[in-house]
Amino acid sequence: MSGVFEFVAEHRKGAGKSEARRVRRAGGVPAIIYGHGEPQTLLLSHNEVLKHLSHDDVYSSVVNVTIDGKTEKAILKGVQRHPAKPRVIHLDFLRVAN
């Protein structure tokens, strides 16, 4: 695999616990990107996230996060996983200033 990981995301309209549960039930992963600008809530595909997280390099690399066609550089700051199931519950991304 190449040295750059790309997460494709959509802007998520709502925020909060009920909206995050709705996203998870639909097979997505709620996420947030913050730092160097306004924070944005995101929606990612669970299968794509699992594929990227299977590589150890993603945890210490600068990744590309494409939000509705616009690419930003970020670091994967936090990953929340379900304690008993192989599910990712939430991701936190920290923007990297150019």
List the helices and strands and how they pair.
Blueprint: E1 6-11, H1 17-25, E2 28-34, E3 40-45, H2 46-53, E4 62-67, E5 70-81, E6 88-95
Parallel strand pairs: 1-4, 2-6
Antiparallel strand pairs: 1-3, 2-3, 4-5, 5-6
Biggest sheet record: 6 strands, mixed, barrel
Characterize the overall form.
Answer: globular
> What is the CA-atom radius of gyration, in angstroms?
13 Å
Order of helices and strands: EHEEHEEE
- Strand coverage percent: over 45%
The number of helical segments is 2
Q: How many distinct beta strands?
A: 6
**Level of helix content?**
10-25%
Give the mean pLDDT: 88
Structural category is alpha/beta
Q: List low-confidence stretches.
A: none
Strand order of the largest sheet: 1-3-2-6-5-4
Q: What is the terminal separation in angstroms?
A: 24 Å
What this model shows, in words?
This protein is an alpha/beta fold and 98 residues long. The protein contains two helices and six strands. The protein has helices at 17-25, 46-53, and strands at residues 6-11, 28-34, 40-45, 62-67, 70-81, 88-95. It has a six-stranded mixed barrel with strand order 1-3-2-6-5-4. Strand 2 and strand 3 (40-45) form a beta hairpin. The radius of gyration is 13 Å and the shape is globular.
